[in-house]
Description:
Radius of gyration: 19 Å
Order of helices and strands: HHEEHHEHEHHEEHH
Strand order of the largest sheet: 1-3-2-4-6-5
Number of strands: 6
Structural class: alpha/beta
Largest sheet: 6 strands, mixed
Bound molecules: uracil, iron/sulfur cluster
Helix content: 25-40%
Number of helices: 9
Amino acid sequence: MTDxxxxxxxxxxxxxxxxxxxxxxxxxxxxxxxxAATHPASRIPSPDSPPPGISYDPPGGDLFSNDxxxxxxxxxxxxxxxxxxxxxxxxxxxxxARLVVVGEGPGRVEDETGRPFVxxxxxxxxxxxxxxxxxxxxxxxxxxxxxRPPENRLPQFDEIAACVPYLxxxxxxxxxxxxxxMGGTAAQTLLNTKQSLGALRNLxxxxxxxxxxxxxxxxxxxxxxxxxxxxxxxxRIARRLID
Length: 243
Ligand code: URA
Ligand code: SF4
């Protein structure tokens, strides 16, 4: 098999596992061009891509018994964050969780262990969840990017764009009743906005129809304890929406 075909096949398999949209591959060079396609598959840069018009409809059904995300993430090199990681951190929790918590990206301890929110910010998150009587094991906890940014810098736009299909797929699989976006990166990514955390808090949002509450990131709370009270208020709202 040529490299182009291998690449295309790998892409299609990934789409299938992620339950993505149908894929229509572009015309071969020299052939009449179809209307501009916007799907990333149309950018597969090889003259050896399969013939045009191949479409792939993902199967329906419950994928959770065979969650594909950790495996896909473990071998993912779609962005530069793969270079410095020790472990990927796909996310973890109950497949039938009623709450999905979304952070920014793995920190040092998460990178060392492969588990989300297990460092200092994670301990605080565990306490926050305990306070609303939601043990960690009953929620699904994950991040926007699945590999640690160097020195815990903010994930960059292209890194988020590369990684976010995993997050969207996780939310589709879990189908929570509420999403809690912790910090600006999670909120802005899920709501597709550049608005500040301050502007987004205190409003009920939706992500694909699912109520979404925005609050401070627990790492920010460690730096600024004044935000604990407002966070507590936000989390209680999330709790009420779950019941
Ligand atoms: N901060 C995050 O955003 N996510 C983690 O998993 C840990 C710290
Ligand atoms: Fe892949 Fe996401 Fe890791 Fe980038 S951060 S390499 S897109 S898993």
